[in-house]
């Protein structure tokens, strides 16, 4: 399988977390599917991919609009995250991305920009053994405008002290890739480098 390349002139690396560093997407899908089933929503893989990258409560609000429901975002969000937390210990690192992180650690500034909540993001990085590689973590708790708005990645660049056009973003989600392009950054679609297993039981 081909290796991920760093573009010429890049001075900072920014990584999404779910589906990029950590193979959490299958577990997130199962948690959403099982939670939404109780509310009469058939949560498909296509729908999951369409909503990937939207923060927790925003996803519930979006689903309310799509299915004409009035589900409480906080209550459902907590229910979904409880199911996810129960399987988080099974999460594996995505090796082609981990290789890049290990290779450039201490050589180029690196940060994580995720649509997830800080507590879950920190736990996920710890489970996959990547927490010691990052001093900068920007989460949904730290920004006003989630992906596809570029704020998450611009905040990462700012904290690294690197100009946006000198940053390369590693992403698996369409919204995240759009956010990176909007920020004027180079973007790498990591799904070309590993087998995506969403829909398989975690």
Topology:
Elements: E1 12-15, H1 25-37, H2 45-51, H3 56-67, H4 73-87, H5 95-104, E2 110-113, H6 118-127, E3 136-138, H7 151-160, E4 167-171, H8 174-182, E5 186-189
Parallel strand pairs: 1-2, 1-4, 2-3, 4-5
Helix pairs in contact: 1-4, 3-4
Please supply descriptive tags for the structure shown above.
alpha/beta; 5 strands; 202 residues; 8 helices; single chain; 5-stranded parallel sheet
Task: Please provide a written account of the structure.
The protein is of the alpha/beta class. Helix content is 43%, strand content 10%. It is built from 8 helices and 5 strands. Helix 1 crosses helix 4 and helix 3 packs across helix 4. The longest helix has 15 residues.
Task: Give a quick summary of the entry.
The chain is of the alpha/beta class. 43% of the residues lie in helices and 10% in strands.
Give the N-terminus to C-terminus distance in angstroms: 24 Å
Mean pLDDT: 94
Query: Could you estimate the helical fraction of the residues in percent?
Result: 40-55%
**How would you sum up the global shape?**
globular
* Biggest sheet overview: 5 strands, parallel
Give the percentage of residues in beta strands.
5-15%
